[in-house]
């Protein structure tokens, strides 16, 4: 007799004998963060610091998706709950948050941890405990390992982004490409991928400049870019640091072409950039979250309106998309839910059509749901046109 059968028999015996007060709920006993009435999904991400705006918006997108499911009765009768802890984009805090949630039995699975170094700090723990994890908010190739059975990436890798878009810059005849990268593991990985791609195109960066994580040396970096006579800049930056860099570069060389990776400009920073965003190019890995052209975006906006959530944008859209995979995986896993069944059901998703944006895994690790990569340009209204 296995443990599940044993607990069920105890519960049945308690009901017969009128001693239900000491019987344990079999769902809660079998899996952390799971009961007959709810499933709790955990996330650690920046709700303060340089990526606070992105973290708040991303969380809002997940909540909008979960609210839509819960209004329809949940998944196999269970309500979806989200537990988020703020790590301020600090890896040590991410590690402490995830350890707290997992060791305390607070969550059934994980989703949407933000940052390259932050994910690096927790992936081994997640794998060791056999916890399904959907949608790391990073494109770091170094975190995509064939041995990972429980990690399900959604966005393409930064390496794939750079491999796709840098040759386009070269084909446009842009000369003297400089790289500005955030001085952390994320930025350094973008730098390495960009330099490698330039070499493959028989070019070399005219300079590689490390931007402080808080962007405090943005003025100095902008001056160094100008002194290097850069003809274009690839930015491996994100959050408020990107804002400080772009404003500094625009003040010194307004027409200098700037291209950021997909996380460079987060939607919450657009009001600060204002007119400086116009003409800024960025890699696009999800459909336009604002226009009504995308069926996926229309579903996202409908969910946010129904949940009475106002902060919509690219970060929230990514949260909503990640949540769709979590929801689909839980539906396929069935009512008799375990972490291993969720892992298997996620791995079995080959084609999840969100309208005009399709997600699916190839069946073997590393699991990556999308390879959609385009270049978009921000217009005068702060909307990105792919």
Describe the structure.
There is one protein chain. This protein has 386 residues and is α/β, with parallel strands linked by helices. The chain has helices spanning 3-17, 26-30, 52-71, 91-103, 116-120, 123-128, 158-171, 185-200, 218-227, 239-252, 270-273, 295-306, 314-333, 339-347; strands at 38-45, 79-86, 109-111, 133-134, 151-153, 177-182, 207-211, 232-236, 258-260, 281-284, 352-353, 358-359, 367-368, 374-378, 384-385. Helix 3 (52-71) packs across helix 12. Mean pLDDT is 91; it is low at 1-29.
Query: Cα distance, first to last residue?
Result: 58 Å
CATH homologous superfamily annotation of the largest domain: Response regulator
The largest sheet has its strands arranged as 7-6-8-9-10-14-15
Radius of gyration: 22 Å
Count of the domains: 2
The proportion of residues in beta strands is 15-25%
Any idea what the shape is?
Answer: globular
Low-confidence stretches: 1-29
- Give a short account of the largest sheet: 7 strands, mixed
* Mean of residue pLDDT values: 91
Keywords: Signal
Protein name: ABC transporter substrate-binding protein
Family: Belongs to the leucine-binding protein family.
Signal peptide: 1-28
